[in-house]
Design brief:
By secondary structure, the protein is largely without helices or strands. The protein has strands spanning 12-14, 21-23.
């Protein structure tokens, strides 16, 4: 689903209460306020992330080996 505000394609979830297909933003449906079952969501493991090798960038390296923020390829020598 394309976000109406920023235009980014985002992961969606179907609210069990109002049956709307919504962007997965948090633990509550933003259409009806119902608490969503987020137990199936895998835990975010921050210890497994690889930080950008550019000392001035705050990004992390994606699966292809490039920084998600600046696009620089990862270099372990820096």
């Amino acid at each position: 689903m394309i976000c109406e505000k920023c235009g980014i394609d985002s992961e969606t979830i179907k609210c069990p209460n109002c049956n709307n297909e919504i962007i997965k933003l948090g633990p509550y449906c933003y259409k009806c306020g119902h608490k969503l079952d987020m137990e199936t969501e895998e835990a975010l493991d921050l210890s497994a992330r690889i930080l950008c090798s550019d000392g001035s960038c705050i990004g992390v390296i994606n699966e292809q080996g490039f920084c998600k923020v600046c696009g620089k390829p990862y270099s372990s020598e820096e």
